[in-house]
Write a structure and sequence with these properties.
By secondary structure, the protein is mostly beta strands. 0% of the residues lie in helices and 47% in strands.
Length: 285
């Protein structure tokens, strides 16, 4: 734990020996005072921040300095819950209430959909999915957490390959798999929200280990150095080493950090709810 050093322009927090400046009002929104309903965030290969909204514009794009670059609308997404940008800068968006995952080009052109819109299925894809990630070999993994308690694996062409999980608290079971991320070795980190943990699996769905001591965790991301960052509803941000050892914690400044991502410089971005916005944890040391 680390005390917060108050400054007029920002908060300073630490995770282990690393210090961060927390900027809450750094984005230059196209309509001042209107931050929409932010749900999640992701960065592309140029560290451009993509903000997922629940409503149109579905995506708003900002430069690393916070300058507004543009947005795009789509009627395919009505309840954006999770977002991931892969190595090809394709944008994957989870529409939780329409039971689909949509894939878009970097400029917002629709390319592929997983699941059948408005056709929820128990135990199979999808029933209110929550998040998506893509491994280096192009495999797509979706956490299916509000109606189901599963993770689904898809081939790069969108073909369903496998499903694992089920309701419960045992290793490999879930009580709302709310988020998913790819680790340094292409294992998968799954936020098991109501069980207060993050479980790790191989790409084939074999349980590896887990991180506990979390209060209703909501999101997870992994830095290039293997640090694992988890936001929960204390609210706080926790950092873990590759072996699951806790490195440090600090509090966050929205009621819920619903989504999280990290850029190539080590800056961490949290999609805040209540109030809506994006907090930037800019690394200082």
């Amino acid at each position: 734990m680390c005390a917060i050093e108050a400054r007029s322009e920002a908060h300073i927090v630490c995770l282990g020996e690393r210090r961060y400046r927390v900027d809450r009002d750094w984005l230059r929104w196209p309509t001042p005072g209107d931050r929409g309903f932010v749900s999640h965030v992701a960065v592309n290969s140029r560290d451009e921040l993509h903000v997922l909204n629940r409503g149109n514009p579905v995506i708003q794009i900002f430069s690393p300095s916070g300058r507004f670059l543009g947005d795009w609308h789509t009627n395919l997404v009505t309840h954006g819950h999770g977002i991931h940008i892969d190595a090809r800068d394709r944008i994957f968006i989870v529409d939780s209430d329409r039971h689909c995952v949509h894939v878009f080009s970097p400029t917002g052109q629709h390319q592929l959909s997983l699941g059948r819109r408005d056709r929820p299925v128990y135990g199979r894809p999808f029933n209110h999915p929550t998040d998506v990630t893509v491994t280096r070999n192009g495999h797509i993994y979706v956490s299916d957490g509000y109606g189901n308690s599963h993770v689904h694996r898809f081939a790069a062409d969108g073909r369903h390959v496998a499903t694992w999980g089920g309701a419960g608290a045992a290793p490999g079971a879930f009580a709302n798999p709310h988020a998913i991320a790819t680790a340094w070795d292409d294992t998968l980190l799954v936020v098991d929200r109501e069980n207060g943990r993050v479980q790790r699996f191989t790409g084939e769905g074999v349980y590896v280990d887990e991180i506990r001591d979390l209060y209703l965790p909501t999101a997870v991301t992994v830095g290039e150095d293997g640090w694992i960052y988890v936001s929960d509803q204390c609210p706080r941000l926790s950092a873990y080493a590759r072996d699951g050892r806790l490195i440090g914690r600090c509090r966050t400044f929205g009621a819920v950090g619903h989504g999280i991502t990290i850029d190539s410089t080590g800056d961490v971005y949290i999609a805040d709810m209540m109030p809506s916005g994006v907090s930037r944890f800019r690394r200082m040391s």
